[in-house]
Amino acid sequence: MLKPLAIGIAACLIVTPALAQRGGRTIASNDRSLASVDLSGAATPRTWAFFRHFAQPRYLRDTSNCEAGIAAFEGQRRDFEAFVDRFLAGPVDAKKTGLERARYLRAAATAHDEVRRWEDIMKGETDSCTVRSARMEILSRRSFVAAISRVFPDMAEARTVLAAIESSLAAAGSDNQAAARAGENRNAAIASVRLPPARSTNPAWQKRFRDWFEANHPDYVFIRQGIYNADWFIKHNPVTSVPEYRQIGTRIAFRMPDGRCRFMTLDLFEYHQGGGSYGSPKFTPGRQEDILCENVDPM
User: Fold this and answer.
1) How far is CA 197 from CA 26, 55, 63, in A?
2) Which of 25, 119, 180, 250 is the most buried (most CB within 10 A)?
């Protein structure tokens, strides 16, 4: 757990993850390959080139493929660390480095504050990718502050921040442990969720709902359902009192391919055609909610 840390600077700036304020300018991650940055030559030009690109490696969450986003970031983080290694292996302009010191001191303080926020996100989050992404955000700041400590070895404040971030990462555990923590949070949050009692066991209605569900969700395993109408609900026109449609609905519990369980609401509407007859059914799926599989009794 990170605790508030007093850094010996006038102010600690809170900014978005991709930016850290550098006086009147910014330290901003860019998309240029760090391997292509020319760090050859004399101390002055290579030092200036380094500081133009010395920024926190960015983690960009891939909402459609969490694994791909994490893998891409790990590659970027390795490139960043190799970039710092290349710089420190050659001559350094001490004057230029000294001029940059205050800016990176502020960046270290900002990283410290941001890690505390990502740490809070991990505490009760139930989504695995969100928890894993929060850990990647902390790793990003760890790499950046570790690099700052190497570039400015006399910066005791950065070493203090780094120790605090290391403690946070130790508490977060590995990527697999972070994902498992999300599962534990999820289970605790839904421990009391149950499928409400059915108000009807009409077998014809049950069949219509189950047939639709299995035809439209072949990857899900039907477990049970609970119809929440005792009879058709009929909506009448408020002026003429003529029926407009009738409706029944159910809640269907099912198992997903990853082994977790959920239930969804599903409504069936039939619109009045006149003469007391109703047209073809229209199924309308509604909200879904997580439920522990052990809390769903199969039919």
Assistant:
1) 58, 57, 36
2) 250
Contact 262, 222 (CB under 8 A): no
Measured CA distances, 2 to 21, 112, 145, 163 (Å): 22, 8, 15, 10
Residue 125 neighbours by CB under 8 Å, 6+ apart:
131, 134, 182, 185
1 contacts: CB under 8 Å, gap ≥ 6: 119, 167, 168, 171
What are 99-131's pLDDT values in tens digits? Answer: 999 999 999 999 999 999 999 888 888 888 889
pLDDT, one tens digit per residue, over 206-259 is 999 999 999 999 999 999 999 999 999 999 999 999 999 999 999 999 999 989
